Amino acid sequence: MTDQVPPPPPEEEEENEVLRASRELQQQKEAADAAEAADREAAKGKRGWKTAAAAGIGIGSAAVIAALLYANRDKIR
């Protein structure tokens, strides 16, 4: 008979539902903590809703322009 060698152990454990849920919960907690810290920092900076609104309008405008350019890309050529 030949000597049978068992297969090598997997490098990483296969992720099951419990491990995945635990990892996702940890990521959500870290994201919430980071958002809370960012909110505290923003409160210190004296930047109000007007600054955020202006940034949102600028980003939104750029998104609309990009969408229009993409939609009309065949007509431009």
Q: How confident is the prediction overall: mean pLDDT?
A: 79
Q: Termini, distance in Å?
A: 73 Å
Low-pLDDT segments = none
Question: What letter string, H or E per element, gives the SSE order?
Answer: HHH
SSE layout:
Blueprint: H1 17-44, H2 49-71, H3 73-76
Write up what this structure looks like:
With 77 residues, the protein is mostly helical. It has two domains: 15-46; 48-77. 71% of the residues lie in helices and 0% in strands. The chain contains three helices and no strands. It has helices spanning 17-44, 49-71, 73-76. The longest helix is centred in the middle third of the chain and has 28 residues, at 17-44. The chain is flat. The N and C termini lie far apart (73 Å).
Compact overview of the structure:
This protein is mainly alpha-helical and 77 residues long. Helix content is 71%, strand content 0%.
